[in-house]
Design brief:
Structural class: alpha/beta
Oligomer: single chain
Strand content: 15-25%
Order of helices and strands: EHEHHEEHEHEH
Shape: globular
Distance between the termini: 16 Å
Helix content: 25-40%
Largest sheet: 6 strands, parallel
Number of domains: 1
Length: about 150
């Protein structure tokens, strides 16, 4: 990971139905949703049941539709057939997740998260903050927290 971002926020999807008309403009074309998501968030966590079904063509479109600092974090599972070789596509083993991921829904305490961010950055390691449920309010609060902290 060569990007200088130290705290990256995202969800386990970018297609939460409750975001339509609330986060995403009601008239946003479907093929623009990921690009719009990427204007606010820096990563997405993809369970193996999702990424294993994605075509090579879709991967290439997704990489083209997102900025250089955006990451696709894939739940580790056997062979990674069909995923592109890109430094922006990360395979996350359980050990990697323990070291690099904060599950926002499990621990929404922003004070504790700020302490973890400080430890992570001090160790020179990025921290990915993900919401399984797509709690947009919490995700936006984390984006504000990282700004206040200078990240």
């Amino acid at each position: 990971m060569q990007n200088n971002q130290r705290v990256l926020v995202g969800g386990v999807s970018w297609t939460y139905s409750e975001w339509q008309g609330r986060f995403y403009p009601a008239d946003l074309p479907d093929d623009w949703v990921l690009s719009y998501y990427n204007t606010q968030f820096q990563a997405v966590f993809m369970p193996k049941t999702i990424w294993q079904t994605v075509s090579e063509r879709s991967w290439l479109e997704w990489l083209n539709d997102t900025q250089e600092g955006f990451y696709f974090v894939l739940e580790s599972a056997g062979e990674a057939i069909g995923i592109p070789s890109s430094e922006r596509v990360l395979r996350a083993s359980p050990a990697w997740i323990t070291e690099h991921v904060w599950w926002l829904d499990d621990a929404p305490d922003l004070r504790a998260l700020a302490q973890r961010i400080t430890r992570q950055v001090s160790a020179g390691k990025p921290l990915f903050v993900f919401s399984r449920s797509g709690d947009l309010g919490l995700m936006q609060q984390v984006n504000q927290l990282k700004q206040v902290m200078g990240y």
